[in-house]
Amino acid sequence: MAGLEVLYSGVLGSVSCAQDAAVCFVHWEIIKSGFKCLGTGDQPRDGEKKSELLPAAWNASKELYTLRYRSSDDKSNLLLKAITVDSTLIFNFMDSATDRVTDLTITVSDYVDENSLQTFDSVFKNTEDLVKKLKSSLLPAAKTEKKEKRERPPATDTRPNPDHDPLRIPSRVPPTARPPNWTDPMAPFAAGGADLDPFGGRAGGMIVDPLRAGFPRSGFDPTGGIPGVLPPGAVPPGARFDPFGPVGRHRPGPDPDHLPPPGYDDMFM
């Protein structure tokens, strides 16, 4: 309330009704929000200066009060209108820069004692409630927006990776435990390369893999099966397979000389 008493004392001679006192109170709350008054009426006039005081003829009309304000940094111009309707005052506040409008309706007798207009100590009542209503309903338009622009994080590329397959199940094997990439199995001297050069990243150790040893392989593919021995698909693709028995030909039948006909021992026939 600091400063309101000085302001009210300066206009005390022109205060003649409860509406005048209510407008004076609202004017001071606007001043406290960082604005200065320019004058009366809707349009600016020559020679106007910003001031904390109420201008001359500010309450010439008891039905409509019109006051203009400008922020201390000259970035916002505000227009206040207070309309008397029976025992109430309708405050209308507009920001000319943003055309934002706020309003508040109060019952004058709830906040002004009309019988004490000439005594500042008792003219206003329930001031905390009135200030609360002003800040929540009327004064938001009077607050200059000084919010610093927040630095936006760099935009991330949200385009899908063409190599990404959402249906692929990722491997649970950690990268360090995954088997090393094999070199070309047909490369000469691949077997034993890692033993000869352990830090060279070469593949092939002491255990020779028939399919990855580096020696030429025959055209035999165990995954296709072995007629009469293994059905197709019995050996998984890429699995190590040690053939048992001859591959690529049937077992030979018995030697005819092993079982000659009974009673026949002519070895030259």
UniProtKB/TrEMBL annotation:
It comes from the Eukaryota. Residues 174-246 form the PI31 proteasome regulator C-terminal domain. Residues 141-186, 222-269 are annotated as: Disordered. Its main location: cytoplasm. Residues 14-140 form the PI31 proteasome regulator N-terminal domain. One of its GO terms (biological process) is proteasome-mediated ubiquitin-dependent protein catabolic process. The keyword Methyltransferase does not apply. One of its GO terms (cellular component) is proteasome complex. Transmembrane segments: none annotated. Keywords: Acetylation, Cytoplasm, Endoplasmic reticulum, Methylation, Phosphoprotein, Proteasome. Residues 143-167 have a biased composition (Basic and acidic residues). It is found in: Cytoplasm; Endoplasmic reticulum. Pfam families: PI31_Prot_C, PI31_Prot_N. One of its GO terms (molecular function) is endopeptidase inhibitor activity. Belongs to the proteasome inhibitor PI31 family. Plays an important role in control of proteasome function. Inhibits the hydrolysis of protein and peptide substrates by the 20S proteasome. Also inhibits the activation of the proteasome by the proteasome regulatory proteins PA700 and PA28. This is Proteasome inhibitor PI31 subunit. It comes from Astyanax mexicanus (Blind cave fish).
